[in-house]
Amino acid sequence: MPIRIAIADDHALLRRGLRVLLELEPDIEVVGEATNGTEVIDLAENQRPDIMLLDLTMPALRGVDAIPEVRRVSPETKILVLTMHHDATYLRQVLRLGAKGYVVKTAADAELVNAVRSVSRGEQYIEPSLSGEALSGLGRPHDERADSGLSDRERDVLYHIADGYTNKETGARLEMPVETVETFRRSVMAKLGLQSRADLVDYALEQGIVERS
How far is CA 171 from the centre of its chain? Predict the structure, then answer.
């Protein structure tokens, strides 16, 4: 029997690329797609996929909030997170919530396919560059001191702004008013002791939250 997998991501081009990639594999079948967190729950309940390939940053209901709901409506579905967050704190959070795997979107095609098969076999798959931090429960000392005080929404705003999105674009992607984005941005900078947007970008690059282009 093929591995029945559902894809949850709000980017149409990415979903299409993932579907093409996965359907090239003879032992994998894509059974559905979701564009937001609410659709994820419906898809899990209606299709009962073997694996839910889940983005963390989606409209309506964030991936981290969708994880326990997917487990509730379809306990047999294993959750494999595919995310832009190269971040040990996010990794530990989703593992605590019950996800079985964590892959970053910069991973090679073969790594994603390997992750799908590993999770399908009941194994845990962790992004290799983060596995040591996940197993130890500790990141770099600066990492833990700085990031431990940030809320999930503050971390979402930090990522988007550091990755080059404007406040308006960040608000549209996270479904929050521009004023709220600005409030979160100021809060992040205050908690991290940063003085400017450039400092915020440098911090995110240093901590591996975003990749240097």
Answer: 18
Cα dihedral 7, 11, 17, 22, rounded to 10, equals -10
Q: What is the DSSP letter of 48?
A: -
Taking the C-alpha atoms of residue 10 and residue 99, their distance in angstroms, rounded to an integer, is 19
**pTM, whole model, 2 decimals?**
0.67
Residue 130's pLDDT band, with cuts at 50, 70 and 90, is: confident
165, burial (CB in 10 Å: exposed 0-12, middle 13-18, buried 19+): middle
Token pair belonging to 115:
């992750």
Q: Compute CA distances 207 → 1, 54, 68, 212, whole Å.
A: 41, 23, 28, 11
pLDDT-derived band at 133, boundaries 50, 70, 90: low
Backbone dihedral angles phi then psi of residue 5, each to the nearest 5 degrees: -125, 140
The SS3 call for residue 82 is: strand
**CATH H-level, domain 3-136: superfamily:** Response regulator (3.40.50.2300)
CATH number of this structure's domain 141-206, picked from the four choices 1.20.120.450, 3.40.50.280, 1.10.10.60, 1.10.10.10: 1.10.10.10
DSSP type of residue 103: E
